[in-house]
Amino acid sequence: MKDIYILGIESSCDDTSASVIKNGILLSNIISNQEVHQKYGGVVPELASRVHQQNIIPVVHEALNKAGISKDQLSAIAFTRGPGLLGSLLVGTSFAKGLSLSLQIPMIDVNHLQAHVLAHFIKQDKKEDHFPQFPFLCLLVSGGNSQIILVKAPDSMEIIGQTIDDAAGEAFDKCAKVMGLPYPGGPLIDKLAKEGNPNAFKLSKPQVEGYNYSFSGLKTSFLYLLRDKIKENPDFIEENKNDLCASLQATVVNILMDKLYKAAKDLHIKQIAVAGGVSANSALRSAFQGYGEKYGLDVFIPPFAFTTDNAAMVAMAGYFKYLTNDFCPIDAVPYARVSM
Ligand code: KG4
């Protein structure tokens, strides 16, 4: 059988990434981060699309070089069509169109959220054999999403619970900001929490129906705690930073795991996976291991390289679609908002 080479392109937010997979096995995954946003405390859409424009060609070149193939060997080009920042998505989409036309190969549109879930199927070497079986539950937690997804097949996913306000990553980033930490605060909270006591401060936990989440109350409770304590001691944050981070992190992880476990129990599902930027969080990763051991669940935690936005997951999602000849027309337009 002819080898299938998929080029994946990801440009939905502030990472420009390109990846090549061969028959489902990863050959390269190049990610170029955009540091330009750091001083603004969040991603500036206009700047993001400009930097994607600068990065896209060198990143694709490097992905092909690292994979050791020429562009003429590609079978198809998979690109993130949405959701994401429209200007950023346009760069990846337009590039995919140009390359697809010039090479006369099909284009495959990929849903960014589905790609995060399908990252669990990327093979880094031929011997790898621990993959989720359908159906399984995936907790997708990032700067923009907190969802519990029932994954029935690569092309059949159902959101059974999601945040009704802020996402988990957003809660980390906003709480970090009020402590004076730089953006994005999530990784720093994780680092500082390692030296702190997770039971030092009690923060409010939401009461939300079903498998839904809410993080805005927690954010407010954190803000009020700081406001009250600073009145008594202006150096409160500095003196308690590690404990604050550890308590906040433990509360977020607890909220996430409670609902995920409830869903797994109710639906009699024995396999749980985690995906998205927040899945890099060390406390969340160990909570997954802990729940797995305690409740006899098979857990799937992505390698760090596949937690944040990356094109390997886009190429993987594209590979699944390639196998069913699910291509998209050349006039496909990106979409900023879309569900599964
Ligand atoms: O999936 P992602 O790269 O893209 C967006 O959704 O934008 O997720 C980024 C989010 C940010 O909120 C960031 O603070 C969070 O993931 N994050 C973390 C960690 N690493 C990244 N949050 C907590 N602990 C981490 N180690």
Give the SSE layout.
Layout: E1 5-10, E2 15-22, E3 25-33, H1 45-67, E4 76-82, H2 86-103, E5 107-111, H3 112-118, E6 136-141, E7 146-153, E8 156-162, H4 168-178, H5 185-193, H6 216-232, H7 236-267, E9 271-275, H8 282-295, E10 298-300, H9 311-323
Parallel strand pairs: 1-4, 4-5, 6-9, 9-10
Antiparallel strand pairs: 1-2, 2-3, 6-7, 7-8
The protein binds 5'-O-[(R)-(carboxyoxy)(hydroxy)phosphoryl]adenosine (KG4).
What does it look like?
This protein has 340 residues and is an alpha/beta fold. 42% of the residues lie in helices and 19% in strands. The protein is built from nine helices and ten strands. The chain has helices spanning 45-67, 86-103, 112-118, 168-178, 185-193, 216-232, 236-267, 282-295, 311-323, and strands spanning 5-10, 15-22, 25-33, 76-82, 107-111, 136-141, 146-153, 156-162, 271-275, 298-300. The protein has a five-stranded mixed β-sheet, sandwiched between helices. Strands 8-7-6-9-10 form a five-stranded mixed β-sheet, sandwiched between helices. Helix 5 packs across helix 7 (236-267) and helix 7 (236-267) runs parallel beside helix 8. It is globular. The model has no long low-confidence stretch (mean pLDDT 96).
